[in-house]
Write a structure and sequence with these properties.
Residues 57-149 form the Methyltransferase domain. InterPro entries: Methyltransf_25, SAM-dependent_MTases_sf, UbiE/COQ5_MeTrFase_CS. GO terms for molecular function: methyltransferase activity. This is Methyltransferase domain-containing protein. It comes from Tumebacillus algifaecis. The structure is a single chain. By secondary structure, the protein is of the alpha/beta class. It has ten helices and seven strands. The protein starts with 21 loop residues before the first helix and ends with a strand. The longest helix is centred in the last third of the chain and has 16 residues, at 230-245. The protein is globular and about 45 Å long. 37% of the residues lie in helices and 22% in strands. The protein has a domain at 39-204 and 252-259: 3-Layer(aba) Sandwich (Rossmann fold), CATH 3.40.50.
Length: 263
């Protein structure tokens, strides 16, 4: 989960990004529900799905496990959660153990998911795909879904095609090589084997920023590690600058797509 809509400052630092990545920042801060709309948006989107105790759900890039825990606790789904970052996996494991939830937690890469074809009914992804090899990860989502299975993917989306310079500026902070527009996301989903791709929620980053009156209910969950290096705060500071600069040029969309019944 990626906090590219958050405006709250946590500490400061003047060091360069050095050896730390944006993904390290997410793990060290232990941020949950950091995408636009937070866990409230996730809950709203999931309420539109027919989830039961028999529904097999894969949470790709589960982070600290907030969404997986909600699914298991609220719907009793058969939840599998994967993430690549060891610290995220550690924090997710602690959450599931504390809440005594039967979530299956594995180390897994969105570009090469460690599952057999057709294993899941629903694949849920929140602010992850844009940081991957898009063609590979979207094909993997299709592969692990059963025919007719559903993908829900909340992703950073360009409100208009971005220039090479703009993409390079975002890449310098987030490592993203491209940020598709809504039309480009839908085209990529269709190419990967999905039918009926649609947007169920969305807006600009600016529209998702919490107001002074509502920020208390919109802030994400934090589970900070001890002894965070000042370089990590420098990444946070740069993230905040980019968020302000791009708040009208970037947005978010929740894409819902169904795997084709026949290839």
């Amino acid at each position: 989960m990626t906090p590219w809509n958050i405006t709250m400052v946590i500490g400061n630092g003047a060091c360069g990004m050095g050896e730390f990545s944006y993904q390290d920042l997410l793990a060290l801060f232990g941020i949950g529900g950091a995408h636009p709309g937070g866990i409230a948006l996730t809950e709203q989107v999931l309420s539109g799905e027919k989830l039961t105790a028999r529904t097999r759900v894969l949470d790709v890039g589960c982070g600290t496990g907030q969404t997986s825990a909600f699914l298991a606790r609220t719907y009793g789904c058969q939840v599998t959660a994967v993430d690549m970052h060891p610290l995220m996996l550690e924090k997710a494991k602690m959450r599931f153990q504390k809440e005594d939830l039967p979530v299956k937690l594995l180390k897994g890469d969105a570009n090469a998911l460690p599952f057999a074809a057709g294993k899941f009914d629903l694949v849920l992804v929140e602010s992850v795909t844009v940081f991957t090899d898009l063609a590979k990860s979207l094909r993997e989502y299709t592969r692990v879904l059963r025919p007719g299975g559903i993908l829900l993917d909340l992703e950073m989306t360009a409100e208009r095609p971005l220039s090479v310079k703009e993409v390079q500026e975002l890449q310098g902070v987030y490592g993203t090589k491209q940020v598709p527009t809504e039309a480009e996301w839908i085209a990529r989903l269709q190419k990967a084997g999905f039918a009926g791709a649609e947007v169920v929620k969305g807006g600009t980053v600016a529209s998702a920023l919490p107001s002074d009156e509502s920020s208390s209910g919109a802030l994400p969950e934090f589970n900070l590690s001890d002894g965070i290096d000042p370089q990590v705060y420098a990444i946070w500071h740069r993230h905040q600058e980019v968020t302000e600069t791009f708040k009208h040029r970037l947005g978010y969309r929740v894409y819902r797509a169904k795997k084709r019944l026949k290839s």
